Amino acid sequence: MNFNIDEEGYLVDAESWDEDVARTIAQNEGIDRLTDEMMDVIRFMRSYYRSYNSFPILNTVCKNVHQPKECVNEEFIDPLSAWKIAGLPDPGDEVIVYLKR
């Protein structure tokens, strides 16, 4: 498995992402195991980003993967970790500030 992450922990080349890469990034983020529910969230975030080139509204993620309203926060604690594990690029300061609230 060969992939690069930047100094903030974001995957440099989104095309190098696969579920093994996701598991390695998750470990870097302090998450020992990715459950099926977590992978559903990750896959939806990747799909949404590819379609709209933006960060999805978190409640939309949960609704679309048929999980409780706060699933991203409950599953990952930090939605930014989910974003990194999904292998997506740095979403920018505005999104990061929004997520840190």
What does this structure look like?
By secondary structure, the chain is an all-alpha fold. It has one domain: Arc Repressor Mutant, subunit A (Orthogonal Bundle). Helix content is 54%, strand content 0%. The protein is built from six helices and no strands. It is globular, with a radius of gyration of 12 Å. The mean pLDDT is 89.
CATH class: Mainly Alpha
In whole angstroms, how far apart are the ends?
Answer: 35 Å
Looking at the structure, the CATH topology is Arc Repressor Mutant, subunit A
Q: Which oligomeric form is depicted?
A: single chain
**Residues in helices, as a percent range:** 40-55%
The low-pLDDT segments are: none
Strand content: under 5%
CATH architecture annotation: Orthogonal Bundle
Q: Could you tell me the mean pLDDT?
A: 89
Number of domains: 1
Please describe the structure with a list of short key phrases separated by commas or semicolons:
101 residues; mainly alpha; Arc Repressor Mutant, subunit A; 6 helices
How are the SSEs placed, and which strands pair?
Blueprint: H1 19-28, H2 36-52, H3 58-64, H4 71-76, H5 79-85, H6 93-100
Helix pairs in contact: 1-5
Outline:
This protein is mainly alpha-helical and 101 residues long. It contains 6 helices and no strands.
